[in-house]
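Lecture 7, part B: from sequences to assemblies.

Below are the input chains for today's worked example.
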Amino acid sequence: MLVGEHMTSPVITVEPHATVSQARKLMQDHDIRHLPVIEHARLIGIVARSDLNWPSAAKVPPDAMPVAEVMSGNVIAVTPRTTIENAASLMLANKIGALPVVDEEEHVVGILTAADILSVFLEVMGVGSGARRIEIRLPDRPGALAPAVQCIGSLGVNIVSVVSAREQDGWRSLVLRLATDDLEPVLTALADLGVEVVSTGEGDD
Amino acid sequence: MLVGEHMTSPVITVEPHATVSQARKLMQDHDIRHLPVIEHARLIGIVARSDLNWPSAAKVPPDAMPVAEVMSGNVIAVTPRTTIENAASLMLANKIGALPVVDEEEHVVGILTAADILSVFLEVMGVGSGARRIEIRLPDRPGALAPAVQCIGSLGVNIVSVVSAREQDGWRSLVLRLATDDLEPVLTALADLGVEVVSTGEGDD
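Predicted structure of the full complex, as structure tokens:
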């Protein structure tokens, strides 16, 4: 779960002397919202679509204004070996929607967006696997997960994903996705174990 | 893991006759990027900060233009009982950064943003729990997870999170976060089980 496995690469970039109009057109043509700015192949900034809003009071027209004037220069970058979790933390803490990815020479090798992390989230949650969703509650202590997992495995049902949702009052809520067409034997076996099933299926829609 | 547990509520909204300038000020004052538009307490649209960019060619100034003219009217909403996974899928498929949350009467009861989902992702990944991260590889078949989970539980180590990262060639990569100061006994026990540990710690930063 490293950035290098989930980033978009190669990445569309601009040079600092490109104009605001050119940057806008690049974003439109490629349906993207962020462009790393590179000079001599090294990262020096990033422009977001919102940086290209043109105030009606501006004296220089967008086809004469260089990107260097409107980019964010103090850009937060990650490397291909940054964990996806660290990348998500950086985006949240800095309220940014994209992180350029650089190698040891600060050459831009990719870009990771909030949308890429949403995709990882869906993968982690087993969405799109065709598996059935169940949510269970377990005591929040060592060994609590093992009997439930073993019981499901012993029924020959593959656990596509198991995710700890939240903790409250010494309990933990878990979402599992199971590769089976028939949840009934699993529900029966979990009930025999004394495991509470909070819900099955996909909520109300 | 339902929207109702993770949305922002109450939510700042505007009425359709509010001006673009007023909407901009609301976003600035509250440091937000999206405002649901409501009429007679019902959702009729949404405005994003980027909808409030003012083209220099516009004939009506922003303090005279009503929000109704620039909002997206065909708004995608969810309910408090929508799963977080479904909400993430909707954002990705429609390239939107926020979903208004409505009750049965289409009254707006909250808003869920991509940032809220990033927070759920971090919670699910056990980030901030102080737990240690290890990544392991297991065969992608029923019962493969049970011995590893049981072995860790039998050492008295609580599994804070376990997440299936990706599948390849019949193998699955999993990220676990373990509530322990000393990973060594776990690594030894997993090695004895024949479980491959891909990495420990937080990547390169």
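Note for the exam: The beta strands of chain A are 34-39, 42-48, 98-102, 108-113, 132-139, 158-168, 171-179, 196-200. Keep this in mind when comparing with the next example.
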